[in-house]
Amino acid sequence: MRNTLDIEGRTLSYLDPGGPGRPLLALHGGMSEAAALTGLAAALGDRWRVIAPDQRGHGDSDRAAHYRREGYVGDAVALLDHLGLTGPVTVLGYSLGGLNAYHLAAAHPGRVGALIGVDATVDIRTPAGPQWFDFLAALPYTAPTREELLAAVDPAALPFVADGVRPLADGSGWRLAFNGEDMLDSIRSCEGDHWDTWLASTCPALLIHGRHSRALTRTVADAMVARRPGTSYTALDGDHFVPFTDPAGFHAAVAAFLATL
User: Fold this and answer.
1) What is the mean pLDDT of residues 180-190?
2) How many CB atoms sit inside 10 A of residue 218's CB?
3) What is the per-residue pLDDT for 131?
4) 3-class DSSP state of 186
5) What is the 3-state secondary structure of 87-127?
6) Which residues, other chains included, contact 135 with Cβ-Cβ below 8 Å and sequence gap of 6+?
7) pLDDT at 225 over 90
8) Residue 128, Cβ neighbours under 10 Å: how many?
9) How many CB atoms lie within 10 A of CB 78?
10) 132 band by pLDDT with thresholds 50, 70 and 90
């Protein structure tokens, strides 16, 4: 069921089935939305209550003034407070969501009882060259019709945006699920060395890794597991997008870890 939360005049939209299952806060990746995690929720069944927000600037949540880590983490805490989940919950995050998840665990250790990072690295560098900036900066955001909006998108970018196109709230046209300039801000705010934050939490953790990922190399993944006590490792045969190219393997890895808690 989709619900909304007002955070100082800004809407945060989230999916929450309710029910008696153990709470699992699930944070999607960049340029995505909560709906990308509905397959995981279905696979886990009633034992787990998968609460998945559209993170700021994504999906049906409003755009934000900034996309720094404290903003993403603050939204997650506000959502947990809103739902009355004051004790520790399990937090899963993919890519951008994984970065936000382990920052949440470090900043609020009493709120996170276990952590699942999905191809989330600790050393983030934007790829060299202008292609990333061209791709995002050139994206349209709105158009009078869905067809006009998609026609204005570079064909190479269509896989990232086509499924998220939606009507504007006032009925005046259509928009993408995110603003390209916002995503540039978000990417830039992720850059840097996050080792201290990764090592700051002590709860049980699982790192799920796509063996052929260029976002998280095997060398860095091995070091993340070795240096952080209580961290287990599952490798899947895929790239950075392995939760969606191997959903069965992803769901099984998450379920196996959750069964140990």
Assistant:
1) 93
2) 12
3) 60
4) helix
5) CCEEEEEECHHHHHHHHHHHHCHHHEEEEEEECCCCEECCC
6) 154, 156, 157, 180
7) yes
8) 7
9) 16
10) low
- Phi and psi, residue 103, nearest 5°: -70, -35
The first and second tokens of residue 195, run together, are: 């080792």
Lowest mean pLDDT of 28-42, 94-108, 118-132, 192-206, name the range: 118-132
End-to-end CA distance of the chain: 26
For the chain, domains (ranges, CATH) are: 2-122+194-258 (3.40.50.1820), 131-181 (no CATH)
Give whole-number Cα distances, 217 to 86, 122, 135, 240, 243, in Å: 35, 10, 24, 10, 16
Length of the chain: 261
Mean pLDDT computed over 18-30: 96
What CA–CA distance (Å, rounded) separates 211 from 68?
28
Are the C-beta atoms of 24 and 52 separated by less than 8 Å? no
SS (H, E, C) 118-183: ECCCCEECCCCCCHHHHHHHCCCCEECCHHHHHHCCCHHHHHHHHHHCEECCCCCCEECCECHHHH
Confidence of residue 127 (pLDDT cuts 50, 70, 90): low
Going from the C-alpha of 116 to that of each of 24, 60, 86, 129, the distances in angstroms are 10, 24, 19, 31
Mean pLDDT of 129-134: 59
Contact 145, 236 (CB under 8 A): no
